[in-house]
Amino acid sequence: MVNHPEKKSWASKINYGVSLARGEILIFLNDDLVVSPNWLDQFLYDLEFLKNKGIKVGLLGARSWGLSGIQGHPEYLSRNEYFVSPRIIDGISLIERRAFEEVGGHDESGEGNQFRDDDLSLRLWFKGYRNVMGLVYLHHFGGGTLGEKAREDFQVSRQWFEKKWGKSPEEIYQEIARSD
After folding, report:
1. In CATH, what number does 22-179 get?
2. Which of 1-5, 49-53, 133-137 tops mean pLDDT?
3. What is the dihedral of CA 9, 134, 50, 116, to 10 degrees?
4. Poorest-confidence range of 10-14, 53-57, 125-129?
5. Is 60 exposed, middle or buried (0-12, 13-18, 19+ CB in 10 A)?
């Protein structure tokens, strides 16, 4: 764990941490999580299992109550299955360094801290990687990383995303769903 020398965006903090890391596997964990027993062993097992099945893994995400999307959806939380999804929340995820670097890491442009995981997930997806919800379960309290600024940050971040991609994340995910 490292502290960023400046108060910058979440994306810049992640990229800074990656620049200091020496390993080939990167794990991103928000500061408002409680991990389950053997979570790291399970994450590493999931990655190897999926790769041995021929899946080019992008983000490998954990499941948790309080997350949006597939990772926090009650229908999927209790099922002991892997689920491929164009979107994985990366504050509770694992990625191989080469995949992270191939897509240029987190985009530090613009303002806001949210939708950076959508951006990273989609850049990986369109490079042929598949983002997967694994079998790791973590408890995410939610709101701890941004605190009271979350609502304001949401609007600024959404505007950044829509300007970059030319449409909303929901529109892009719907297009992906129709094309699969």
Report:
1. 3.90.550.10
2. 49-53
3. -20
4. 10-14
5. buried
